[in-house]
Task: inverse folding
């Protein structure tokens, strides 16, 4: 599977690179979409940076699941107790994933204290074995946020553990075909997208799903999540000959292509 075909599999026209975007024709959308699992440190990141890809996969006949490793409860504004805010985050995630047609699950660690170790990696590996996604999307490692960085490393090891036949667990081994990293304003260091997904059919629905989160509506801090991510999708659309798009970065290990000739 080359880059064009696996991004097509992901659920939309794929372009070979951002530089080639304007000239490249969208791939024909005739493949059968599989299952995507988005694995995020905090539910808001999951919906804002990975939710449109999940929604698009469902729209095209595939399936999607969002796994969050915390409730993001410590992002609570001063006016809302942390536990109460955590419940609000959980409710928002259930409503948002229902709206876009994705499943949701939580492996709950305390926000800001998500540990990177064999225990957390094995629990995520078990979730991958249970859900059997062909594609996993998670945080890029170029981030200032320790939860995001730990999530990145957890997923790296979890994909390995999930596919290890000789590691007996509750569910049989499952090999993830591709891993992508999502575009996140907090994970921007050395993020170089190489895969674009046309999200125009689900753009409005995805914005509605994000709107369940107080953070999206500007009620928890200074950052304008709504303006940033809704505009980012338009900008990425401009670069990929789509109206709106999400840009993803593939794992360097999966970029090699085997060609008979150029
Ligand atoms: Zn976060």
Result:
């Amino acid at each position: 599977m080359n880059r064009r075909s696996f991004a097509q599999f992901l659920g939309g026209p794929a372009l070979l690179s951002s530089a080639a975007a304007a000239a490249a024709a969208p791939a024909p959308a005739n493949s059968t979409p599989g299952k995507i699992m988005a694995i995020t440190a905090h539910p808001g990141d999951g919906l804002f940076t990975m939710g449109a890809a999940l929604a698009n996969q469902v729209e095209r006949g595939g399936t999607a699941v969002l796994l969050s490793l915390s409730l993001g409860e410590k992002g609570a504004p001063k006016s809302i107790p942390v536990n109460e805010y955590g419940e609000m985050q959980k409710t928002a995630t259930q409503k948002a994933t229902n709206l876009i047609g994705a499943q949701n699950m939580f492996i709950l660690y305390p926000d800001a204290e998500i540990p990177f170790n064999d225990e957390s990696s094995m629990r995520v590996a078990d979730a991958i074995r249970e859900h059997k996604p062909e594609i996993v999307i998670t945080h890029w490692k170029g981030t200032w946020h320790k939860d995001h960085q730990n999530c990145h490393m957890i997923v790296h090891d979890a994909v390995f553990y999930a596919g290890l036949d000789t590691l007996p667990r509750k569910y049989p081994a499952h090999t993830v075909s591709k891993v992508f990293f999502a575009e996140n304003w907090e994970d921007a260091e050395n993020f170089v997208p190489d895969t674009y997904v046309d999200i125009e059919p689900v753009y409005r629905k995805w914005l509605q799903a994000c709107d369940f989160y107080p953070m999206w509506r500007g009620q928890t801090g200074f950052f304008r999540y709504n303006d940033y991510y809704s505009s980012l999708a338009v900008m990425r659309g401009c670069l990929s000959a789509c109206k709106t798009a999400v840009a993803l970065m593939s794992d360097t290990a999966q970029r090699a292509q085997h060609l008979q000739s150029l």
User: Anything to note?
Assistant: Residues 82-100 form the longest helix (19 residues). The radius of gyration is 17 Å. Residues 3-18+34-250 form a domain with the Rossmann fold fold (CATH 3.40.50.10320). Residues 125 and 160 are 8 Å apart (CA to CA).
